[in-house]
């Protein structure tokens, strides 16, 4: 069943595989899909832009073979333009690059679109939203970081909520209703409700979905219930 708020606003749920058990990745993907995940969020880290190294193109390639869910690749890497074509070739449906890593952001977003994937732009908690002003018409997705990128399991930064609301207003003012407003970091049943109320339409959740205590299905059901209870 497609996930919507009580008022019928569609919401995309994108579990982040960073928190999955990598020795059982295929099983975790299948569990997430069966529980109603819409996209799978793939966190790519280079140890340069962020202080951690995660996964890359071969993992996306392997995932493509085991799921039909769209693979949403979040590139936390410097010089992302060097790898965009490879991620698309491997099966990325959407690719988000950080505004902080792209001196030629316009060109990079066009490269993603021309390659056949959905372009997204990601923004760190300390970067002013005005940095997105010139590119909102070029993207299918804006990813607002609600933690400093690099690690799963961090706490939602409270100031993100007003940033989401301000971006929601800008997207609405510019009639960009098709652009996903994605929020990433510290999303659980409580914060999911907060960010959806502020205008988010696309939720990334890692440790809240793949936590070791509850099963994946249970965790996704809790997130869905939280979203469905919002107006
Ligand atoms: C953080 C990543 C997130 C991370 C979220 O740098 O971009 O996608 O996996 O993990 P949680 O949901 O645990 O905060
Ligand atoms: Zn991410």
Number of domains: 1
Shape: globular
H/E element string? EHEHEHEHEEHEHEH
The overall strand count is 8
Major pleated sheet: 8 strands, parallel
- The CATH C-level name is Alpha Beta
Bound molecules: D-xylitol-5-phosphate, zinc ion
Q: What would you say the CATH architecture is?
A: Alpha-Beta Barrel
Strand content: 15-25%
Tell me roughly what share of residues is in helical segments. 25-40%
User: What is the mean pLDDT?
Assistant: 97
User: What's the end-to-end separation, in Å?
Assistant: 18 Å
Poorly predicted runs of 5 or more residues: none
Structure description:
- This protein is of the alpha/beta class.
- The chain has one domain: Alpha-Beta Barrel (TIM Barrel), CATH 3.20.20.
- It has helices at residues 25-34, 57-64, 84-90, 105-115, 160-173, 189-198, 216-228; strands at residues 12-15, 40-45, 71-76, 92-98, 118-123, 141-145, 180-184, 202-205.
- It has an eight-stranded parallel β-sheet with strand order 1-8-7-6-5-4-3-2.
- The longest helix is centred in the C-terminal third of the chain and has 14 residues, at 160-173.
- The two termini are 18 Å apart.
- The model has no long low-confidence stretch (mean pLDDT 97).
- Residues 16, 18-19, 41, 43, 74, 147, 149-154, 184-187, 204-208 line the site of D-xylitol-5-phosphate.
Describe the structure concisely for a colleague.
The chain is of the alpha/beta class. The protein has seven helices and eight strands.
